[in-house]
Design a protein that fits this description.
single chain; 701 residues; alpha/beta; 21% strand; binds alpha-D-galactopyranose
């Protein structure tokens, strides 16, 4: 999960790391269906990552037969097979892949092809060493791992484009190829620190600022004698640099990876049927190496790889990742990889419990996934990931988890009709801004400031009052939401403030958390107190912020509790601003002062929460927010440990209920619903640990 991802990446870097009916036959166009629900195929897909290039062809059919028996109906293939597809420069061999795709079709298994650019072949990197990334210390990475290509190398881009083009030419009209995954995990956003990359960054800055005086002004380079007189004086930041430079570098990183992705999509698209989708393999909320909103733009839909690592599924943490990935394009997602029991890259690679993999698959579906794919089918006999969980052992026979996955396949096909055309529709949005996240992390002010922890506290509390939450970019249309919460939206330039105010004026309820509205788009302090351009509408401002040494009592109409880590002293200045919470005795500055202020504005309201609230207070705040904004969930709050998720279709809704607590729980339904896994009408459920119920609700369109 999020906190483990960096470790996992580090490990990888160190260790080296339904039937295919063409659309014509169906007589309809791809655009008539939501893109993630593949025309003519199951609505809920079960998948696995299959590496035929690692096995003799004589074995393939056995594997595919075993997949088909488990109702696996999609395989992702070839994303690391560059050296097999192009064994020497310009010499392509696809006969093996033709055969694999054909055999998969014979077993009613659709194919997603990955472009293999996350692992260039040795002939390429050795003949053209500039295609390898250079580390900040000037060392080129060596061959033998993956993600070693330089995203800024023109030569590397040329080779990537060519293999992608050759694949598209060959398979762009293949009836059993349903879509494409570009690259794999986008090199974890790693950059090359060579002179060429630096020059490209300087050119990018020049195109953006036009004049050095504009750049010097926005970055306040008079500070510490940073003034630049020539573009080529500007360094690549490697930490501890000017915040304006750091933010622009991250934007350049985003630009470089987006260009890398489009470099492939642009040559492929004209060669492919429009029914074939383009997706990428992202890594959830926690990975913030680049701005995912930018990279997801040219994709048909977003996929991500969902791993728990050590421990067990935390439905809130994992739900945040699902909802954030779904929010990138506001469209259903694919879980193109997930763990078959356990991984090999975390400090303790424990297995998920019996039944937990199934519960996790349904949790994925509840949060908007249309496909769940297990990585991987079978471990290669050698290679860096031999001990990772699989569905088949080294002897080619199923491992114990295979049966559980087969059960998932059976259930997916049993209930898929109810999910057709459904998506997650939410009344609440949480705002996610990569630029604010980077900027806070560079100047945390207290090591204890944990943005994810704060987001999770809001998410967890609000999820009790809703069966779904969207996590979206602040700049998208927010009109559909009754309540929009920004836990810590640091960068609020004027345009963004106007956009948020327009939402409030038309009846939206906006809640800002601590540190909001402190900076502009250049990562410079705004020349006003927080929340900057929103202070007037709030009828209050932040007089001062304080990093707390210890927790502080707080009390008000929300009840009594404690705040910790961060506290802002609010100063109301409008007659209709209402104080909901005040600080108790603490550092002498905060005692008796407002911690939360709310004010009606236009047809809606704007609220500022200036501190990190403890569980009691955040729950009270969530209840208040839900009431104020008129959130009306179908289910009353359910017992702790039960997750309820809803997908809405044109005529009915489907609810996914899962018990993640060790005790058996009883859930009383708001009215009779149809339980689809056991075909009966129910008004009450008893769910044991990891128990799942899929309920169709005709009353709730
Ligand atoms: C990632 C990669 C896969 C594999 C798995 C292992 O998600 O995309 O190739 O390494 O991790 O967990």
């Amino acid at each position: 999960m999020r906190s483990l991802r960096p470790l996992r990446i580090l490990n990888l870097v160190i260790l080296g790391a339904g039937l295919a009916l063409p659309l014509v036959m169906l007589g309809k166009s791809a655009s008539q269906d939501p893109p993630t629900q593949l025309p003519g195929r199951n609505t809920l897909l079960l998948g696995t990552a299959w590496y035929p290039e690692q096995w003799p062809e004589s074995r393939w059919e056995t594997d595919l037969r075993m997949m088909e028996a488990a109702r696996i109906n999609v395989v992702r293939v070839a994303e690391f097979a560059w050296s097999t597809m192009e064994p020497s420069e310009g010499h392509f061999e696809f006969a093996w892949l033709d055969h694999a795709i054909r055999l998969a079709g014979k077993h009613h298994i659709a194919v997603v092809l990955g472009t293999p650019t996350a692992a260039p072949p040795a002939w390429l990197t050795q003949k053209y060493p500039d295609t390898l990334r250079m580390e900040p210390d000037g060392r080129r990475v060596t061959h033998g791992n993956r993600a070693q290509g330089s995203v800024t190398s023109a030569k590397y881009l040329e080779f990537c484009r060519r293999i992608a083009q050759e694949m598209a030419r060959r398979y762009g009209h293949d009836p059993n190829v349903v879509g494409w995954q570009i690259d794999n995990e986008y090199g974890y956003a790693q950059m090359s620190y060579d002179d060429d990359a630096r020059r490209q960054f300087q050119d990018w800055l020049k195109a953006k600022y036009k004049t050095l005086s504009a750049l010097n002004e926005h970055w306040t380079t008079a500070y510490w004698s940073q003034t630049y007189d020539n573009w080529d004086e500007i360094p690549i930041p490697i930490g501890g640099h000017n915040p304006g430079l750091m933010l622009d570098w991250k934007r350049f990183v985003t630009f470089a990876w987006a260009r890398y992705q489009e470099n492939q999509i642009d040559v492929m698209k004209p060669l492919c049927d429009p029914r074939q989708f383009f997706t990428g393999n992202f890594m959830g909320y926690g990975f913030n190496g680049f701005d995912h909103y930018v990279l997801s733009r040219p994709l048909t839909f977003v996929s991500w790889d969902d791993y728990v690592g050590t421990g067990h599924l935390d439905p809130d943490a994992n739900g945040i990742s699902h909802d954030a990935m779904r929010g990138l394009k506001r469209e259903n997602i694919w879980i193109i990889e997930t763990q078959p029991g356990f991984v090999n890259w975390s400090p303790l690679n424990n297995s998920l419990d019996k039944g937990e993999v199934r519960a996790m698959a349904w949790h994925d579906i509840g949060h908007g996934a249309d496909e769940v794919g297990y990585w991987q089918w079978r471990s290669a006999f050698n290679g860096q990931e031999e001990l990772h969980g699989t569905l088949v052992g080294p002897d080619g026979e199923p491992v114990p988890l295979y049966e559980e996955v087969a059960q998932i396949g059976k259930e997916f096909s049993q209930v898929q009709g109810a999910f057709r055309g459904t998506r997650v529709v939410s009344e609440i949005a949480l705002l996610n801004d990569y630029e604010s996240r980077w900027a806070i992390d560079w100047q945390k002010h207290t090591a204890k400031y944990d943005q994810f922890g704060i987001l999770k506290s809001y998410y967890r509390a609000l999820r009790k009052f809703s069966q779904s939450i969207d996590i979206v970019n602040p700049d998208v249309s927010l009109d559909q939401y009754k309540l929009v919460v920004a836990p810590d939206l640091y960068l609020i330039p004027k345009v963004r403030a106007e956009h948020l105010l327009a939402y409030v004026k038309t009846g939206g309820h906006l809640v800002l958390g601590p540190r909001s509205g402190m900076k502009d788009e250049f990562n410079a302090l705004l020349p006003m107190r927080q929340p900057g351009y929103l202070a007037e509408a709030l009828g209050a401002r932040v007089d001062q912020f304080y990093a707390l040494e210890k927790s502080v009592p707080a009390t008000g109409s929300l009840g009594e509790g404690e705040v910790s880590v961060w506290a802002e002293l609010l100063r109301p200045n409008a007659p209709d601003s209402e104080v909901l919470l005040r600080y108790g005795k603490s550092n002498g500055w905060l005692g008796g002062q407002p911690a939360i202020v709310t004010r009606p504005f236009g047809r809606g309201s704007i609220t500022y929460i200036g501190a990190v609230l403890n569980e009691k207070l955040i729950n009270a705040a969530a209840q208040w927010m839900a009431r104020e904004s008129g959130i009306a969930p179908v289910f009353d709050p359910v017992p702790d440990g039960i997750e309820v998720s809803r997908r809405a279709g044109p005529n009915s809704s489907v609810f996914v209920l899962i018990n993640f607590s060790p005790e058996t729980q009883t859930v009383t339904l708001p009215h009779t619903m149809r339980s689809l896994l056991d075909s009966r009408d129910v008004t009450q459920l008893h769910l044991t640990q990891y128990g799942v119920a899929i309920l169709s609700d005709a009353k709730q369109p």
